[in-house]
Specification:
alpha+beta; 10 helices; 25% helix; Rossmann fold
Length: 438
């Protein structure tokens, strides 16, 4: 049921409720606590026989933040607490530099707004006021199916928040203290943290390639004693930048970078010199076991898109298979020669039937859910991630990385996966509503 908020336009601090509302929610006290986001206050109530059952009158001059009357709200009533909402925040920037282009992007996430209701606002780190526990941002107003706009407003800390950017750690702790576990994608983590968490769990350890932190060229040599090829990956790397593959042939070390340039180092001494002059990222590097998946001399891997739904459960929204250009060691978008649905890519790689490909996807999905639950337990709270998966020659899935901040969707647009893309954009808002208690 949707409710319209009206102003009492009275100097008296009271809430006016319809007789039907009071009866429906079994309110017996002469006062109620109004909760909006993390803000609450107790008001006396007046029961009206003339007020529409879908209207609630509030003394707006006593509400110390923006509460648009143009929107429709839902209520959740427990005992004598009226929770009005949902109030959902999307933390999308560090600076308050919103543009028309960025608002268009956020609008795509609200195509299911008629099922969400309440206030959905976007904000930046700069808009958070910890002294007053408020956030200044822009809230969504849907005029009709084709027209909408974003209006500036100031709100209390919300019921739930979808965090899309990395912010100051002390600030995050401050808002988490007030909001509890209702901020998702709460902590950004890298490949090293994923490895550390998985390596401590007997089942998860089997789902990631052998990995170690790079300290010196000796670590590369040590890993090559155990594996045919090793990948050197920047700890904080994105989109394949800075990745190198190392192979050892007849005592020489063959290094290939993400641009497919190759360097031959004749011995350990040359390898040591190369590492000293080229591996200079201050954030450090990881060494990861290379998994051979060559398809016509092309590298292949998979993206599994995972989100939590209204039931707060992990679901796989879809799978994309990515095949690199010939001899390329990475599969990010600009280095691709082919994109396929996950099932088709598996059939191409392994020559299996449709049913066998589906079984591989289902098995991998369950393994990803296991690791998804694990990172929820050990790192933070997540609701929107992408697993980068590689299948070895025995069709065993290994997790290369979990993209837990911002990931691209060009592959989905190129494959014309419009329905899947819409689900990926809108599902986090549905999850946020569920977290909010509505």
């Amino acid at each position: 049921m949707k409710f319209k908020i009206l102003d009492t336009k009275s100097k008296k601090d009271r809430i006016i409720l319809s007789e039907e509302f009071v009866r429906k929610y079994n309110l017996s006290s002469d006062s109620v606590t109004l909760q909006i986001g993390q803000w609450s206050r107790t008001f006396p109530i007046v029961i009206s026989s003339k007020l529409s059952p879908t209207n609630i009158k509030l003394p707006k001059r006593e509400i110390p933040f923006t509460l648009p009357s143009s929107l429709r709200y839902e209520v959740k009533v427990e005992k004598d607490v009226i929770h009005l909402g949902p109030l959902i925040g999307l933390l999308v920037k560090r600076k308050d530099n919103f543009t028309s282009k960025s608002f268009n992007k956020y609008t795509k996430r609200l195509r299911n707004y008629k099922d969400i209701n309440g206030i959905v606002f976007v904000c930046s780190e700069a808009g958070i006021d910890t002294d007053n526990q408020t956030i200044t941002g822009y809230y969504y107003v849907q005029k009709n199916k084709k027209k909408s706009k974003w209006e500036k407003g100031t709100f209390p800390y919300p019921d739930s928040m979808f965090k899309r950017v990395k912010i100051n750690t002390s600030l995050l702790k401050e808002i988490q203290y007030s909001m509890g576990n209702t901020i998702f994608n709460s902590r950004v983590f890298n490949k090293q943290k994923l490895w550390e968490v998985c390596s401590e769990d007997s089942q998860a350890k089997t789902l990631v390639p052998d990995t170690m932190r790079y300290k010196s060229y000796k670590d590369i040599v040590k890993m090559l004693d155990q594996h045919e090829q090793v990948y050197i990956k920047p700890t904080q790397g994105m989109q394949g930048q800075g990745i190198r593959r190392v192979k050892r042939i007849d005592g020489a070390f063959i290094l290939t970078n993400n641009r497919s340039d190759t360097v031959v180092l004749k011995n350990k001494k040359e390898l040591k010199r190369y590492c000293k002059t080229h591996l200079t990222d201050t954030n450090g590097y990881l060494l990861q076991q290379g998994i051979s998946t060559a398809y016509k001399r092309k590298h292949a891997d998979f993206r599994f898109y995972f989100q939590k739904n209204r039931e707060k459960e992990w679901i796989c929204q879809g799978v994309v298979g990515r095949v690199s250009k010939k001899n390329s060691i990475v599969t990010n978008y600009k280095h691709l020669s082919g994109l396929y649905s996950g099932k088709k890519a598996i059939k191409l790689l392994f020559g299996v039937t449709n049913q066998e490909a589906e079984q591989i996807i289902q098995q991998t999905t369950q393994q990803c859910i296991y690791v998804g639950d694990l990172i929820d337990q050990k790192i933070g709270h997540y609701g929107d991630v992408v697993f980068d998966i590689i299948l070895d020659k025995n069709k065993r899935a290994l997790i290369l990385e979990i993209n837990n901040r911002i990931y691209g969707t060009k592959s989905l647009r190129r494959l014309k996966k419009h329905k899947m893309l819409r689900k990926i954009r809108t599902t986090p808002i549905e999850y946020a509503k569920s977290l909010a208690g509505f």
